[in-house]
Design goal:
The complex is a heterodimer of chains A (515) and B (130).
Chain A (H helix, E strand, L loop, with lengths): L1 E3 L9 E10 L3 H12 L4 E4 L14 H7 L8 E3 L3 E3 L22 H11 L5 H14 L3 E2 L6 H13 L6 E2 L1 E2 L26 H7 L3 E3 L4 E7 L2 E10 L6 E15 L5 H8 L12 E11 L14 E3 L8 E5 L4 H7 L5 H7 L5 E8 L6 E4 L5 E4 L4 H20 L4 E3 L14 H5 L11 E6 L25 E3 L14 H18 L13
Chain B lengths: L1 H11 L14 H11 L2 H15 L2 H4 L11 H12 L4 H18 L3 H6 L16
Helix pairs in contact in B: 1-3, 2-6, 3-6
The chains are: A alpha/beta (515), B mainly alpha (130).
Chain lengths: 515, 130
């Protein structure tokens, strides 16, 4: 059992030989690594961020940005507008800071992948993996006692409007206490993020974990991936530490995220026409409802209600999302005494959000310094969906009894009453008018049969390179219209099993047999 | 540059109302920590946002003075208008200042008490070392 955290330059370089080297420890990396370890292979997981346990998690939003987020949360997609990208940089990846929402990959997605990208044979194994994951990670509906008033109001509003789907979320959270701290990491340890589950299991099965260890490049031996090179970085001072070189006897599995995986492959000299292309996202924004009596949205689960009634048309997912006062303060328009007056209503706010199943695509390429640069702009049909989603959420608030809504669209009044909603219907479609984020990211190393339009095959194997697999959201070739963690984990486990099946018979050890 | 950022924040989150202002929330210590811990580009963005705040008063309240020299009432009107300006990059710069300030303000124990939220324990800033 071995975990190597930061290693100072003076301690000398680190190297090792493993069957598999997995780059990244988030939903994709940890799920692949645990499958490989259960199959009896020797595995090294290399994670750019530090390993933080619940006792290390920050309480404040500032601490969350500093300790858990990639680049202090400052990464943005560059286009007509600058929209932030939310990703973690910590062992467990974004599973540490998300709401652990568990939604099975919709059947129409597999059909679309087969028809448009020639990807066959994925549905059955991914379904089987997802069923297993749900059992192992205690997927359960947000319990009644921890739902909080914001989630209850959202359900009431959707039911009042007669939406065809309105449900309390199923999440990888065991006996949620409703602390409202999902975004800063669940200090109670109820959220089954992968730093608490699969990564420790990899260690207990004899694997190795390197944390604070960003991989700089893949080492290629001709057309075969032979390992990875990198250098430790201190998580507080950001000082460079010792270098490391890990050799992979069987394969390197890249699962560094939809922004970092394509850039790592490009930095390593891989030349594939589709590499870094077809970046997609679920852009989203929130609308505050302003209620007469306090909602106290930070009491209860951070995200507990959702609707998929509009997933097919117009292409939206609706959810609740409680954000702390630190973020509400900057999210509300205005400054000075006017802003302070608005903030006095904080307890009366409920924030509900939408995620757009956008068809627009962008690119991810390395900057001069090797960091990912995302270029992405929503086209007009997607902006129309975006605005339509805000309208749906606003109507839901009014159906739940809100006295007004706060859309946050520049150029519109700060607050709208129900009879002012036509103003939202005709709001400008310029993305610069909206405050939005890109929460679910896809593409950059997309799967497909055609080597000209894809980077990997249906098992994540990079075209033309032996022993190199990509196993994260970057392989997903279309938008899902649902939260992607479950799909990423399912795909990663299927890819890892395929790797095991390709090689010599290993010594399979069932889940749960190692303490 | 610290004073420039500080004065922009104090104008955007002023004291004297029903809730404490940023100046009442340990702002000086927070800003020193923020400058030390945030990536240089983030800090640079906040400084640029503060510069936009101070040197745009002519366009909002039509007075050719930096915001830190304006009388309090006029500065407050400027804070309100510049935070909602139609000039996208200027608005983004002010947003960054508001975000940094909000991280300090919203975590303050007294602010949280007034918003019926429990105080936050200190961020440990620790990680597994072995």
């Amino acid at each position: 059992m071995r975990h190597v955290a930061f290693r100072a330059a003076g301690e000398g370089p680190l190297d090792g030989d493993f069957d598999f080297v997995v780059v990244g420890s988030g939903a994709g990396g940890a799920s692949a690594a645990v499958t490989l370890a259960r199959g009896g292979a020797s595995v090294a997981v290399v994670e750019a961020g530090p390993w933080r346990d619940p006792s290390d998690y920050p309480s404040s939003a500032y601490g969350g940005m500093r300790d858990l987020m990639d680049d202090f949360g400052s990464q943005v997609a560059v286009g007509r507008a600058l929209w932030p990208i939310v990703q973690a940089r910590v062992v467990g990846g974004t599973t540490v800071i998300n709401s652990a929402i568990c939604v099975r990959t919709p059947g129409d997605i597999f059909a679309q992948w087969e028809a448009q990208h020639g990807l066959t044979g994925l549905e059955a194994p991914v379904r089987a993996a997802q069923e297993r994951l749900e059992r192992e990670l205690s997927a359960e509906e947000a319990p009644e006692a921890s739902r909080g008033r914001s989630n209850l109001l959202a359900k009431a509003g959707a039911d009042g409007l007669g939406w065809s789907d309105s449900h309390y979320m199923v999440r990888y959270v065991k006996r949620c206490a409703g602390a409202g701290q999902c975004l800063q990491g669940c200090r109670g340890g109820q959220k089954q993020s992968l730093n608490l589950t699969f990564v420790p299991e990899v260690l207990s099965r004899g694997g190795t974990v390197l944390s604070c260890a960003p991989v700089e490049r893949l080492v290629l031996d001709g057309r075969r991936a032979a390992g990875v090179r990198g250098r430790f970085v201190h998580p507080a001072s950001r000082a460079k530490g010792a270098s490391f070189f890990l050799r992979a006897k069987r394969a390197v599995v890249v699962a560094a995220s939809a922004t970092h995986s394509p850039v790592l492959l490009l930095r390593s000299g891989l030349k594939l026409p589709a590499l870094g292309e077809f970046f997609r996202a679920h852009p989203g924004t929130g609308v505050f409802g302003n209620y007469d009596s306090p909602v106290d949205m930070n009491v209860g689960t951070t995200q507990g209600w959702a609707s998929m009634a509009f997933r097919q048309a117009p292409g939206l997912k609706l959810e609740t999302l409680a954000i702390p006062p630190e973020l509400v303060a900057s999210r509300l328009a205005g400054g000075g005494r006017e802003l302070m007056e608005r903030l006095t209503r904080y307890r009366h706010f409920a924030m509900w959000v939408h995620a757009v199943r956008a068809e627009s695509t962008g690119t991810v390429k390395p900057s001069l310094f090797g960091r990912p640069v995302v270029r992405y702009t929503l086209d007009r049909p997607d902006m129309e969906r975006f605005r339509q989603g805000m309208l749906l959420v606003a109507r839901q608030h009014f159906a739940a009894g809100a006295r007004s809504v706060i859309p946050g669209i520049t150029g519109l009044p700060y607050e709208l009453t129900a009879d002012q909603l036509p103003l939202m219907e005709s709001a400008p479609l310029d993305p610069r008018r909206y405050v939005a984020i890109l929460s679910h990211l896809f593409g950059g190393c997309v799967m497909g049969r055609d080597e000209k339009t894809s980077v990997t095959d249906a098992r994540g194997r990079v075209h033309g390179v032996q022993g190199l697999v990509v196993a994260d959201a970057s392989v997903i070739p279309t938008n899902l219209g649902v939260n992607p963690q479950h799909t990423i984990m399912g795909l990663a486990q299927v890819f890892a099993q395929a790797l095991l099946d390709e090689g010599a018979p290993a010594r399979p050890v069932p889940a749960g047999t190692v303490a | 540059m610290l004073w420039l950022v500080r004065s922009a924040i104090v104008a955007l989150y002023p004291s004297g109302g029903a809730l404490p202002g940023a100046a009442d929330c340990g702002l000086d210590g927070f800003l020193r920590r923020f400058r030390r811990e945030a990536p240089a580009l983030v800090w640079l963005g906040v400084v640029l946002g503060a510069l936009v705040f101070h040197f745009s008063a002519f366009f909002t309240v039509f007075v050719p003075l930096p915001a830190f020299l304006l009388p309090a009432g006029l500065r407050d009107r400027h804070a309100s208008r510049i935070a909602s300006t139609n000039v996208y990059l200027a608005r983004q710069g002010i947003f960054l200042v508001k975000l940094a300030a909000g991280l300090c303000w919203g975590a303050d124990a007294e602010v949280r008490r007034r918003l019926a939220l429990p105080p936050l324990p200190a961020d440990p800033g620790t990680w597994r070392t072995s």
